[in-house]
Every structure is written in structure tokens, then in C-alpha cells.
# Entry
Amino acid sequence: MGTEVSILPLDLTEPRRVHATVVKALRHHPPIDLLVNCAGVAHQGRFIESHLQQLETELMTNLLGMYTITRIVARQMMRRRQGHIVNVSSLMGKVAAPSMAIYSATKHAIVGFSQALRAELAPHNIKVTNLMPSLTKTDMVKDMTPFRWVQAARPEQVAKAMVAGIKRGKREILVGWQSHAAVWCDRSLPGCLPR
Ligand SMILES: NC(=O)c1ccc[n+]([C@@H]2O[C@H](COP(=O)([O-])OP(=O)(O)OC[C@H]3O[C@@H](n4cnc5c(N)ncnc54)[C@H](OP(=O)(O)O)[C@@H]3O)[C@@H](O)[C@H]2O)c1
# Structure
């Protein structure tokens, strides 16, 4: 497509290394206009049977990784007074699901993080968008027990919803009618959703 691409392999569970690599990269590459914080992991299972290591991996990747990269890139965006940050949460950031307690917690945290960041960065002309996909056919869910009432989306649908939402200046982007229905039901008729 005529675009030059640089790939920096990073393990988000190693914040010091991530920090050093991204700071170095920013010195040698053009400034970042759009940051999409998409990496994430999910473990499915009953909370009481979960292990500390699973909790650490989910917190480190889904939250600490996002924190580390966002802090460096947001500083650069502030200096330029322009930029856009998209944080990938989940429908589970609005409506938590059984068997996904820690994941739901991290995705709720991302919603709160994005709200606060949006207000802090708006005076610097930086936008913050929260993308909340529902179940999507990716590697993440291939071995999971499906939720009965949810129809899985394709990654392309999520990407299209993200681009359309950004163009319309939406702060939070839900993907598909099922997500809108789930959030509405959870707010208006608590307990009505099959879980
Ligand atoms: N699939 C769904 O149903 C669904 C629904 C709602 C929200 N989401 C969210 O969408 C985002 C993308 O997930 P996905 O469905 O595309 O899952 P995926 O296919 O499993 O992809 C996860 C991505 O995260 C990266 N990643 C995982 N651990 C990492 C680490 N320690 N350091 C750096 N990168 C790491 C993976 O990199 P490697 O490939 O190199 O391991 C991969 O690119 C996640 O934030 C997820 O929570 C997914």
C-alpha cells in the first residue's frame, strides 16, 4: 500500500523494557498520530479456581501495558498538540460476564481510564476513544466456551465500526446491535440478561 512499516516486538508484561524501546523508537521515527492499544489476554474459568499467575498476566498485559505505552506516547502528542488514542476495552467493560471476572475487571478499568484520560487530554487537542467489541472470532476465543446468547462478529466488522465511530467523533464505540441491546438491558432491566 506504499506505506513504510516498522515492527517493534514488545512484551507488555515487561514495562521497563517496553518503556526503553518505545522511547528509543520515538526518537528515530516520525511522531505518532494514532495509538491503538489493542493487545490483550483473557482467561476463562471460575474465579475461585483461578491462579494468581493468570491474574498477573491479565493485569500486566491489559492494564499495565496500556499504561506504559500511553504515558510515553501521550507526552509526545501533548508536545505536538495533536493525536488520537483508541483503547480497546470490551462489551465486558460495561456488562461483566461470569467465568471472566478478572478480564471483566480489566476491561471495566479501561473504560474508567479512558474517561479520565479523555478529560485530561482534551485541552491538549488529543482525543481518546474507547472501543468495546463484543464476542469476535479471533484466536482469543477459539478455545472458549461460547456464551449462548451472543453471536460472534468478524474482526473486519470491529475494524469498520472503529473507523466509522472515529469519523463520527464517538467517545465510546459499541460493536453491533447485540452490544447496544445488552448495555440497555443491563441498565434498564438489571438481571434480565442470561448469564
Ligand atoms: N475476541 C473477542 O471476542 C474480543 C471481544 C472484546 C474485546 N476484545 C479485545 O480485543 C483486543 C484484541 O484481542 P483479539 O481478540 O484480537 O485477541 P488475539 O487474537 O488473542 O490477539 C491478542 C493480541 O494481543 C497481543 N498480546 C498478548 N499478550 C501480549 C503481551 N504480553 N505483549 C504484547 N502483546 C501481547 C498478541 O500478540 P501475539 O500474537 O504476538 O501473541 C495479539 O496480537 C484485546 O484487547 C481483547 O481483549 C476481544
